[in-house]
Every structure is written in structure tokens, then in C-alpha cells.
Amino acid sequence: LHGRTETIRSCSRQAASFVRAMAAKQGSAEERKQLLIRAVASHQMQARYCSQGQGVDRHLVGLKMSLAPSDPAPALFADPAFTESKTWR
Questions:
Q1: Based on CB atoms within 10 Å of each CB, which residue in 10, 68, 71, 75 is the most buried?
Q2: Mean pLDDT for the chain?
């Protein structure tokens, strides 16, 4: 893909479900194991997509950067979840 980079978003619904179950100590060990397996499979799929140039992060960055200063930003860019997902802690 000629030098294009992509990032993998680690916060997926599957990962969030696993974290919530572990934090609340919900479900059996087997149920939590299955949630972990689903979260890992989701992450692996995202990694595969990114390695094939099918990720969305850089595309969204490009779209935001292409806005003229006077252009109104689409609602997506003001969404709290989108804003939070750009922050490293």
C-alpha cells in the first residue's frame, strides 16, 4: 500500500463487554473466557483489515483535515465517543 499507515482501535464492543464482565465479576469463568475470545477475534480482524488498507482511522483523519476552516464539521467529529477515542491515557 505504498507506505500508508493505519491504527487499530482497541476499544470494540467485544472488548468493552469483556472488560465490563471482568470488572463487575459477572458470569462464570467460562463465560468470561468466551468474552475474551470474542474480543481477541475482533481485534485480530481489525488488524487484518488495517494491514490490507481497509482501516477507517486514517480515512477519518483525512476527511477532517480536508475541511476548510469555514466548513461546518460533520456531527461525527463532535460525538463524545469519537472525541474520547482519539485520546491516549
A1: 10
A2: 86
